[in-house]
Amino acid sequence: MEALRAAHLHDEFRALVLPGGEAHRILDKDAVVRLEKADAGHGGRPEIDRGDLRGLLLGSLPGDTVRWGAKVTGARPRGDGRHEVTLAGGSAFTTDLLVGADGAWSRIRPLLSDATPDYTGVSFVEADLLEADLRHPVTAEVVGGGMLFALGAGRGFLAHREGDGSLHVYAAVEADENWLDGIDFGDTDAAKATVLEQFGGWDKSLRALIADADGVLVPRRIHALPVGHRWERTPGVTLLGDAAHLMSPFAGEGANLAMLDGAELGLALAVHHDDTEAALTAYEARLFPRSEAAAAESARSGALLFRADAPQGLVDVFAAHG
Q1: Distance of CA 12 to CAs 36, 60, 144, Å?
Q2: Helix 188-196 to helix 204-211 angle, to the nearest 10 degrees?
Q3: Average confidence score pLDDT of the chain
Q4: Which of 173, 207, 224 is a domain's end point?
Q5: Are residues 195 and 131 in the same domain?
Q6: CA 155 to CA 311: how far, in whole Å?
Q7: Are residues 204 and 285 in the same domain?
Q8: Contact 152/315 with Cβ under 8 angstroms?
Q9: Dist CA 268 CA 35 (whole Å)
Q10: Residue 56: Cβ within 10 Å count
């Protein structure tokens, strides 16, 4: 929220918030509701469709700000804090301030750090159920109006309602890194059957989150950088978002942190407009402890979600926080 206020987009953001999106319910593998909380209406953790947020942010920029189709393939230092960035197709440019905001597999990160994302031990299979209330009413009722956590030992379903009435679903499985390689995602029916083998004995209404999914299934291995990832101050270059602090999604802070990183970097550059290195030093001094705390929380939450007595651990956390 702080980042959106800094960008003068808070009011527009509020207009796009999903009504009831902060509601959540926790179920066990038998679809027994173990905890349910309605949206309190105070907007403490508002939910918005990713597409709407992307559109809001892009729409606030002058039309020629983003150079589309310019895929970065590498970068190298040129001395005196300048860096050369190479694009697909062979063209290149040189800049005196390079900000790597290029995600999990950043091409800019190697300028600062040898760290690479590690597999967390959890894989997702992503699915959608369209027009849920009309076409999948039983499943829509199970999910409710906000977020669903249906959990068991080593696996679970995470689902939420989108603004267009669809349900967005992740089937999560603790598995070897190569588990997804054994699934034929080109054959959706076969892929569904293979994924659902991991949920034998689960209630039919939960299995339907995959069995009745519309369209293709999408595999997602969950990776993370080491908790506390940081680097030595290097002239002319820094990172933000997943490039700086990729973490698992179990704390729900990835997009929030990326926006805050961008806002704080911009403000630091404005304050230290005549000293880029002072700006980057000030930015990173706040970035590192903030991202370390969030990454640690995310790692703890991931372990909590899928432990042997799941969903009890998550129930206890939500109950303790009212």
Answers
A1: 30, 10, 26
A2: 150
A3: 93
A4: 224
A5: yes
A6: 10
A7: no
A8: no
A9: 43
A10: 17
Confidence grade of residue 127 (pLDDT, cut at 50, 70, 90): very high
Residue 224's alpha-carbon distances to 26, 115, 116, 295, 299, in angstroms, are 25, 10, 8, 9, 9
Length of the chain: 322
Give me the domain span that covers residue 152.
Answer: 10-48+118-224
Are the beta carbons of 268 and 244 closer than 8 angstroms? no
Residues 131 and 215 in one domain: yes
Please, are residues 86 and 75 in contact by the beta-carbon 8 Å criterion? yes
Rounded to an integer, what distance in angstroms lies between the CA atom of residue 77 and that of residue 228? 25
Which residue carries 């709407």 as its tokens? 52
Give residue 183's identity as a one-letter amino acid code.
I
Residue 132 and residue 271 share a domain: no
- Write out the H or E segment, with its range, that includes residue 154: none
Q: What tokens were used for 94? A: 């040189």
- Token pair, residue 2, equals 């702080």
pLDDT higher than 80, residue 22: no
Do 262 and 240 meet the contact criterion of CB atoms below 8 Å apart? yes
| Nearest residue to 239 (alpha-carbon basis) of 130, 63, 112 | 112
What are the helix (H) ranges across the chain?
A: 2-6, 10-16, 50-59, 132-135, 137-143, 188-196, 204-211, 242-245, 254-271, 276-305, 312-320
Together in a domain, 238 and 122: no
pLDDT of 208-263, one tens digit each?
A: 999 999 999 999 999 999 999 999 999 999 999 999 999 999 988 889 999 999 99
Cis peptide before 117 (omega within 30 of 0): no
Tokens (6 digits) for 308: 């042997």
Bridge partners of 94, per DSSP, are 84
Question: What residue type is assigned to position 47 of the chain?
Answer: E
Domains in the chain, number? 2
